[in-house]
Hints:
There is one protein chain. The chain is of the alpha+beta class. Helices cover about 15% and strands about 35% of the residues. The chain has a five-stranded antiparallel sheet. A hairpin with a 7-residue loop joins strand 2 and strand 3. The longest helix has 9 residues, at about 50-60. The radius of gyration is 14 Å and the shape is elongated.
Amino acid sequence: MNNKPIDQEILVIAKYHPATISKGSRVSYRTTIPNIKRIFKGFDHRFNSIEEQVKHHLSNLGVTLICKVQMANNSEVGLVYKWNPAIINTIGLK
Length: 94
């Protein structure tokens, strides 16, 4: 029997939300797992892009970004990370 862990990835979807009258611009991110919450953070202009901001928020988890993927919705960015349960724990379930 082989006890090696399965090599898996997890897709994190980041989205930019423009400012409205009542809220400033912000970035949200979630995974594609059903019933997962969406995390909202105010857009930080120190970062060049939304993927850089989300990568920064997840960096303390020690997760490895593998690649970016194009999403059907132009306001979304797909970030593929090496599987780590800490991503799910950080974002949380509904």
